[in-house]
Amino acid sequence: MRLSPFVAPSGRRRRVGMLERRRSAIAAGSLIVLVGAALAVAAGVPDRASFLVPAGREGFPAWLGGPLAGVGPELQPGGFSVLVLVMCAAYAAALVVADAVRPAWAVAAVLGAHLALALSAPILSADVFGYIAYARLGALHGFDPYLNSADAAPLDPVHPFVGWKGLPSPYGPLFTLVSYALAPLGLPASLWTLKAIVAAAGVACVALVASLAERLGRPPVAAVLFVGLNPLALVWGLGGAHNDALVTLLVLVGIHLALADRERSAAALVVGAAAVKATAGLVLPFMVLGARRPSRALAGAAIAALALGALSLAVFRSGTIGYLGVLADQGGFVSRHAIPHDIARALGLAGFADGRYTLAPVVRVVALAGLGGALAVLAARVWRGADWIAAAGWATLALLVTTTFLLPWYVVWLLPLAALAESRWLRAGTLALCAFIVVTRVPLLGG
Predict the structure, then answer these.
(1) Which end of the chain lies in a sparser environment, N or C, as judged by fewer CB atoms within 10 Å?
(2) pLDDT value of residue 6
(3) DSSP string covering 126-188, please?
(4) Are 170 and 150 in contact (CB under 8 A)?
């Protein structure tokens, strides 16, 4: 018996409708689960010393825990690991069904996750107290933070909370100078002002990514999810109040200006980002090579560099030389789960001495050669007309793969570039790096 030709299309419509409803349910469910897990992480920080708050090892005043401390069940390493893995699974599911996510859902999820972790204690790092300590060294004690460490003012109330007590500031002069404004506020206000600023910068980055994605013809909702709900950026980056969101915000504004053919201002913004954290400067050569008028971009970069150099010399005794000297000294540091270190350890070329991880010199040579080769190839491709945003993303990925000091929140530099680039392979590589970091940092998996 032959069916009417009208039956099959009707059946197909029903099947398509069922599939769309199923994808919408998965989309909504994944966002709810991710935000719920983020809230559980924030609320699971106890109102006393724990592995989650390294800054509280020498004392845990009430203001350190924040409004959510002790609200939920106290997290142990296993429970924290499960929540992070749940966030990762929900993130992956949301990316798979990104076309089924309504824009309002994406915005609500990003805002909810950012709010939850903005209200958490500074988790998994004490770096935020380093920012405060260097600001107080200069503004209150008259010390050059590029020549002195927190140990120069051992009686300052911030000293017990600082992680790297014996190291000068590795942060750029623009960030250090602006942070001087925090010094008169006192510790509690300084901490929570920084948490609020980092959260606002994170949301602003997501908004800019959405706008830029639409301008470049990329799906804006998918880009928002990719950047705004990444568990590493949320838990480690925002949770720890790291300044990487500020760096990325300046770079994204620079990209926005570059796409509007405002090359001078765009390059100046990227130089400003490098004056917060030096690694942002990696974007600059690709922006210049990809500019319609490269000479204007070079002029903007030069003017910004000269202005920031003069400002640095006027404020800090050591000027820019002091900052560059600190970068040179600390550039040899090795983190436990940097990719070159893990490979070197498997080959018997890594060690541990005087409280620090070490590498055989050949490992650094190979890593630097690999990075240099990748940058040269990418620069040549942009010179021949390739997408400079994608090239900057690949360069950042190459840096993170070859660096001997890799920390989870560094993916904040990479995520927007990968989201805005044409290359699906770059996004896949970014997610692969994120997976590596999760596996090596989550306690339940041996991190």
Answers:
(1) N
(2) 45
(3) -HHHHHHHHHHHHHTT---TTT--GGGSTTSTTGGG-SSTTS---S-HHHHHHHGGGGGG-HH
(4) no
Extents of the domains making up the chain:
333-447
- Residue whose pair of structure tokens reads 């911030």 in the numeric block: 158
Q: Is 301 helix (H, G, I), strand (E, B) or coil?
A: helix
Instruction: Please provide the average confidence, as pLDDT, over all residues in the chain.
Output: 94
Q: CA-to-CA distance for 328 and 271, rounded, in angstroms? A: 19
What's the confidence (pLDDT) of residue 317?
81
Helix, strand, coil % in the chain, rounded to nearest 5: 70, 0, 25
**For residues 400 and 159, what is the distance between their CA atoms, to the nearest angstrom?**
31
Contact residues for 381 (Cβ-Cβ < 8 A; gap 6+): 391
Instruction: State residue 16's pLDDT score.
Output: 66
Helices within 44-145 (DSSP H only) = 62-65, 77-96, 103-118, 127-139
H-run or E-run covering 22: helix 7-43
Would you say the pTM of this structure is higher than 0.90?
A: yes
The number of C-alpha atoms within 13 Å of 1 and in the hemisphere containing its C-beta is 2
| pLDDT, average across residues 376-403 | 98
Tokens of 356: 């620090």
Percent of the chain with pLDDT over 70: 96
Is 275 in a helix, a strand, or coil?
coil
For the segment 155-209, what is each residue's pLDDT rounded down to a tens digit? 999 999 999 999 999 999 999 999 999 999 999 999 999 999 999 999 999 999 9
Tell me the residue type at 53. V
Give the CA distances from residue 65 to residues 46, 53, 69, 206, in Å, rounded to whole numbers and listed in that order: 7, 9, 5, 27
Q: What is the pLDDT of residue 282?
A: 97
The packing angle between helices 7-43 and 103-118, to 10°, is 10
Interior angle at CA 176, CA 175 and CA 179, nearest 5: 85
Residues 6+ away with beta carbon under 8 Å from 122: 53, 55, 64, 128, 129, 191, 195, 239, 240, 241
Task: Give pLDDT tens digits for 77-104.
Answer: 999 999 999 999 999 999 999 999 999 9
Closest CA to 135 of 112, 108, 153: 153
* b (16+ CB within 10 A) / e for 313-339: eeebebbbebbeebeeeeeeebeebbb
State which amino acid sits at residue 217.
G
